[in-house]
From TrEMBL:
It comes from Sorangium cellulosum (strain So ce56). The lineage of its organism: Bacteria, Pseudomonadati, Myxococcota, Polyangia, Polyangiales. Residues 1-23 form the signal peptide. SUPFAM superfamilies: C-type lectin-like (SSF56436). Gene3D superfamilies: paralog of FGE (formylglycine-generating enzyme) (3.90.1580.10). GO terms for molecular function: formylglycine-generating oxidase activity. This is Sulfatase-modifying factor enzyme-like domain-containing protein. InterPro entries: CTDL_fold, Sulfatase_Mod_Factor_Kinase, SUMF_dom, SUMF_sf.
Length: 428
């Protein structure tokens, strides 16, 4: 342990020490005050070892050091001779620190009288305190502005390792969108179905897209005019948070997350592992119903007959999709499995409806039949009976042709899948 020094026990040195600490943010003044604290001691009173440290000389050579300092007083202070009173072994200044000290004149006060040094140190301390106060505004003024709660949550998710490299600040959308009454063309032509096969061949395992694939799209035939009255449709897929309110009310059944699906049990993502009856029960509890197949297609394609909710051209960054491959998951859109609802704003319809392509495929009200009824229809509700219900929109395990607004899926109403959810509609 080094011996105690005067600079750490005298009132003068105590004040200058405080000045050094206070002015830490103003490096020049800090070093200046520090040099004063060191140099107020006559050189001969400093223990030989510390004097040696001060000058950067070897131990046992204080006289040589003193001579060296006198020379330096009229020249320059070498970069490597600075030291610290509180550091043992001595602190060898970095070049930039030495440069700062030289600019502060530290090398030119070491031989001044103690009285003069006392006055100079006091003045320097007061200046340091004053400027430190100016340089350090109140903590309130330095506090970073608070982000909106949604941005804070996104940043927290990013810190937790999830993908959230871009934080989009925007006003939340409405819970539902009103679709005005009118007619549109439902279904696909043979040309459109041939194009769907072309899209299929662009998938990683496109060699699997053969005649059978084309036949699977034939259930979109034939295009027919449909008139729909005004209706409301949810802007997003029903989330876990919303569904849990129905569960808490004792109306809806708990999805079977506990049997291996815990990672899907997050409030901001679509509820999955729900049967058609689960979906219908929720929508009735929420004051609505499942959309009809025609309503769903009208919402996705508009009156212009868009191929995708956002337009006519496929864009892999506009939907949380999968791919036709041995591994059906695809995180090139930012999400390997479920995405929080409304994550891909660019994929929103012109009406403002999110995730009608991808994320989760969605139960609709109709029974499934592989052929549409011929002729035009008004507010069609599908077959009166059937073994399966219709699914729409594709999901995070499906590629581009199945994300088209006209594509039709189907499954048993009692089935539950990790990529399947729903949204609700209401009469206007
Ligand atoms: Ca994806
Ligand atoms: Ca969807």
């Amino acid at each position: 342990m080094p011996p105690p020094t005067k600079s750490t026990s005298s009132p003068l040195s105590s004040a200058s020490c405080s000045a050094s600490i206070t002015a830490a943010s103003t490096s020049a003044l800090t070093v200046f005050a520090l040099s004063i604290r060191v140099d107020i001691e006559p050189l001969e009173s400093i223990a030989p070892r510390r004097a040696a440290h001060f000058c950067g000389a070897s131990r046992g050579a204080p006289q040589k050091c003193a001579a060296r300092r006198r020379v330096e007083r009229s020249t320059r202070c070498p970069a490597a001779v600075m030291t610290s009173e509180t550091t043992d072994p001595p602190h060898r200044a970095k070049p930039e620190e030495a440069e700062t000290v030289r600019e502060a004149g530290a090398c030119y006060v070491s031989d001044m009288r103690p009285a003069a040094l006392f006055t100079l140190a006091t003045v320097a301390s007061l200046v340091a305190f004053s400027l430190a106060g100016v340089a350090a505004p109140p903590s309130r003024a330095r506090r970073a502005p608070r982000l909106p709660a949604r941005a804070e949550a996104a940043l927290s998710a990013s810190a937790a390792g999830e993908r959230a490299s871009v934080v989009a600040l925007r006003a939340p959308g409405p819970p539902a969108v009103l679709v005005r009454a009118g007619s549109f063309t439902m279904g696909s032509s043979e040309v459109e179905i041939a194009h769907a096969v072309t899209l299929c061949k662009l998938e990683p395992a496109g060699e699997l897209c053969v005649d059978e694939t084309e036949a699977s799209f034939a259930n979109e035939l034939v295009p027919h005019e449909v008139y729909l009255s005004d209706f409301w449709i949810d802007r997003t897929e029903v989330t876990v948070a919303s569904y849990r309110r129905c569960v808490s009310a004792g109306v809806c059944a708990e999805p079977p997350y506990a049997s291996g699906g815990q990672r899907f049990d997050r409030p901001e993502v679509p509820v999955v592992l729900v049967s058609w009856s689960d979906a219908q029960r929720y929508c009735v509890w929420a004051g609505g119903r499942l959309p009809t197949e025609a309503e769903w297609e009208r919402a996705a394609r508009g009156v212009a007959g868009r191929r995708y909710p956002w337009g006519h051209v496929y864009n892999p960054f506009h939907a949380n999709h999968g791919r036709l491959s041995f591994d059906e998951l695809d995180d090139s859109d930012g999400f390997l499995e479920l995405a929080p609802v409304g994550s891909l704003v660019a994929g929103r319809t012109p009406d403002g409806i999110d995730d009608l392509a991808g994320n989760v495929e969605e139960w609709v009200a109709d029974y499934y039949h592989p052929e549409y009824p011929s002729g035009s229809a008004k507010n069609p509700r599908g077959p009166d009976m059937g073994e399966e219900r219709v699914l729409r929109g594709g999901s995070y395990i499906l590629g581009r042709p199945w994300l088209r607004g006209a594509a039709r899926g189907h499954d048993s109403p009692t089935s539950r899948r990790a990529w399947r959810g729903f949204r609700c509609a209401r009469d206007a």
